[in-house]
Write a structure and sequence with these properties.
Strand content: 15-25%
Oligomer: single chain
Number of strands: 8
Distance between the termini: 47 Å
Order of helices and strands: EHHHHEHEEEEEHHEHHH
Shape: globular
Helix content: 40-55%
Strand order of the largest sheet: 1-2-8-3
């Protein structure tokens, strides 16, 4: 049984930096910046940090503060008016809030400068996780293939079985389910899972066994469950990986996908600390 692993691709070193993002943005004005402390820690100048936050947010810090203030004022007025009205439809405050939110949603971000930085990973995870993550745009994936390789079969082992959430979009709760009644008998779910994985692995080995009549690996792999571990090289820009992390770090994302996103985000923070935080967690207000 195996666990999820994410590491930097040893063959491809990360390129770019927060300063590279800044200078890509400044290219429009044919200007460049430098690190504030070039011979010590690579620290951005305050104005360059604000520039990155503007690029990620799509508006200046002052514009953002004004937006939040307006939402708060209208929201408070809406609550008071709705309490006073017999019918909520008689109040126009809700429409004003909707209009402000649409303005926020339609405020364009400036993604291009973040896409001049490139990073590559090697990931080991179960097939069902890989199939979720392959959906993300602009990330290149080169995966291990069981059309050619029949050995080194491993299966993912969860820490525990999670209880299904009432909300399907959330997927699961943190509450464990260790024992369940199946066909009138209480069974140990982890033990049952390991037994099934072993049986499927045994059947797979029989199909691809070393003899003249062995089954082609590209078909025999159909016997293996989705929990079979796979490996892939995953490469892309800072902007593309940040978007993946923003989506997969959400509490409603599947736990196993969050493990991958958390590890990727840790590396983004090492190489692009200001940009990664601004893109994934959101820029500072000021």
């Amino acid at each position: 049984m195996a666990k999820i692993v994410v590491r930097l691709n040893p063959d491809v070193q990360p390129t770019g930096s927060d300063l590279a993002v800044v200078n890509a943005a400044r290219r429009s004005f044919n200007s460049r910046s430098e690190w504030e402390y070039p011979y010590k820690d690579r620290v951005l100048k305050p104005e360059d940090k604000r520039l990155i936050e503007f690029l990620a947010r799509g508006m200046t810090a002052k514009d953002f503060e004004d937006f939040v203030t307006n939402i708060s004022i209208i929201g408070e007025a809406s609550c008071k008016a709705n309490d006073a009205c017999e019918y909520q439809e008689e109040c126009m405050f809700d429409e004003q809030i909707k209009e402000l939110l649409w303005q926020w949603r339609n405020t364009p971000t400036h993604d291009t400068p973040f896409n001049h930085c490139f990073i590559s990973f090697e990931v080991k995870a179960p097939i069902f996780v890989a199939r979720q993550l392959v959906k993300h745009e602009y990330l290149i994936m080169s995966e291990f293939s069981r059309r050619y390789i029949t050995d080194e079969v491993e299966f993912y082992e969860p820490d525990y079985w999670r209880k299904a959430a009432p909300n399907k979009k959330q997927g699961s709760l943190e509450e464990p389910v260790d024992v369940k009644e199946i066909w009138g008998k209480y069974v140990d779910l982890m033990g049952l899972y390991k037994e099934d994985c072993y049986n499927q692995w045994q059947r797979y080995r029989e199909f691809v066994g070393e003899n003249v009549d062995r089954v082609a690996p590209e078909q025999a792999r159909m016997l293996l469950p989705q929990s079979t571990m796979t490996e892939w090289t995953w490469s892309g820009t800072l902007g593309a990986f940040a978007k993946m992390c923003q989506l997969r770090l959400h509490p409603d994302a599947q736990y196993e996908a969050r493990i991958v996103a958390e590890e990727v985000y840790k590396h983004l923070l090492i190489y692009y600390p200001v940009s990664a935080k601004a893109l994934v967690k959101g820029p500072d207000v000021t």
